[in-house]
Amino acid sequence: MELQIIDPETGNLTPRGPELVAFCEEHPEVGLVVKPELVQATIEINTGICKDVAQVERDLTTQLTLLRSVCRERGVSFLSAGTHPFARWRERQYTQTPRYRALVDKHVWTARRMQIYGLHVHVGMPDGETAIQVINQITQYAPMLLALSANSPFWEGDDTGLDSCRTKVFENLSSAGLPFRFENWEGYENLIQVLLETGSIGSQREIWWDIRPHSDFGTIEVRICDATRTLAEVLALTALVQCLAVYFRRLYESGEEVRLLHPGIIRENKWRACRWGLEGELIDPLTLQGIPTRKLIEQTVGEMQPLAAELGCSAYLAGIFAMLESGNGATRQRRIHAQTRSLVAVVADLEAGLAT
């Protein structure tokens, strides 16, 4: 979870992330581990290796409770959303590590605007070959995950008209966006080798695709989601990602041939999800016909329910239906703004999403 560090009095981003990271490093007895990000008004929290979504919930609940206490002692707060509703990127301060200095030096203006926040879900894979085939399949359903999680309609005080403007900001980096389709793991390794040898990337960590293999962890990492307002939404999306990953892994291992969508259709679906969230239509991966986004998600979740029962995440997967009923985060942000005409009120509502 990438979290925004804010000044509770103004609601604006504040560059206190390094202070929180330093405190946690100096006081390991607190039991909280946070990581820095490019923008100093950001910290990242991660779970350990979890066997199920219930363990994810316990892990994140503990970390968020500890973080809340540490932040309160320092007069700061935090929230979860894909962008901050009114913060201006020109006012940001950046983490001065060699990695982040190199990132800004290469990407210049496009990197300096990276006051964006996402949710990343890892699912373990037995080997690289399986990982590549699962990524090929799950990418077709990634736009649904974006539509559900979209939580960044505002940028520097303006309503962008997009449900996820974070998506379009992030895509400006050189290796961000939808993943390429590979026939096998060797094809992926060949590309990475060329990029490394030509100095295009310094390591695989600089591949920022919406879904990518993570060789260090032995996982696929689904990165397309905006940071969502509540922990319940995080857990619902985690359950759906887990179900999709296990479903497609089993299809591959059984040798069943599954049709792959043309990348142009996936790209179109991602745009639709970015633009209209849950209120538009997507192109059905099976019928190739337009279908209301909510209906496609309902159908997909329905198909995953027997697997969810097996994996022990049925109650969490049911949270997707609650998200469909209430609308995504972008809808909520716009509703709060329409009611109050205040983006500070929008920030307060986002802050309340992770409050106890």
Q: What would you say this structure looks like, in words?
A:
The protein has 356 residues and is an alpha+beta fold. Helix content is 49%, strand content 13%. It has 14 helices and 13 strands. It starts with a strand and ends with a helix. The mean pLDDT is 97.
Shape: globular
Domains, number? 1
The main β sheet shows up as: 4 strands, antiparallel
Give the neighbour order of strands across the main sheet.
2-3-1-4
**Residue-averaged pLDDT:** 97
Low confidence ranges: none
Series of secondary-structure elements, N-terminal to C-terminal: EHEEHEHEHHEEHEHEEEHHEEHHHHH
**Structural class by sheet pairing and helices:** alpha+beta
CATH topology: Creatine Kinase, Chain A, domain 2
DSSP summary, beta strand count: 13
Measured on Cα atoms, how large is the radius of gyration?
Answer: 20 Å
Name the beta content range.
5-15%
- CATH class assignment: Alpha Beta
